[in-house]
Amino acid sequence: MVKPDGAFFGEKDYQQIAIIRSMVAQCGFELDIIAMPIVREASGLALSSRNQRLTEQTRPNAPKIYQKLRESLDWKNNGKTPRDVEKQVTEELNAEPHLEVEYYTIVDATSLQPIESWNDATQTIGCIACYCGEVRLIDNIFYT
Question: Do the strands 6-10 and 32-36 form a parallel or antiparallel pair, or are they unpaired?
Fold first, then answer.
């Protein structure tokens, strides 16, 4: 009954956006899916209602997730492969107190399929889920 022109989704949950875009295309809906940029605290931590569940002990470590993602841009530019970058991000975050990476994968931003080479996709994104204490936080970063 209702035929909207567009739907807006936050980029923090990028995998959701990619799936919805695929569904819209498969179903032939005339609907623009508009990705809205991640809003961040001054520390770089992506805004989320889950952040309220962080404790005094765990909260200082939560911004390290995005800090490490930002550092990984340099690793890519210094010749590391996507697998090397994934491994380094995971190892360095897991070495931090209160942080435990559930997954970090660099994928084709359209298909969400993992890439082996930076040239495997027009646009690539690294998607992470990381526990900070008992709170599961998600974030991502575009590489191209």
Answer: parallel
Under 8 Å between Cβ of 87 and 101 = no
Predicted model pTM: 0.92
Q: How far apart are CA 16 and CA 105, in angstroms?
A: 15
Q: What is the pLDDT of residue 136?
A: 98
Pure H helices in the chain: 14-27, 64-77, 82-94
Cα 107–chain centre separation: 10
CA angle 94, 99, 105 (to 5 degrees): 60
Q: What is the pLDDT of residues 39-73, one digit of tens each?
A: 999 999 999 999 999 999 999 999 999 999 999 99
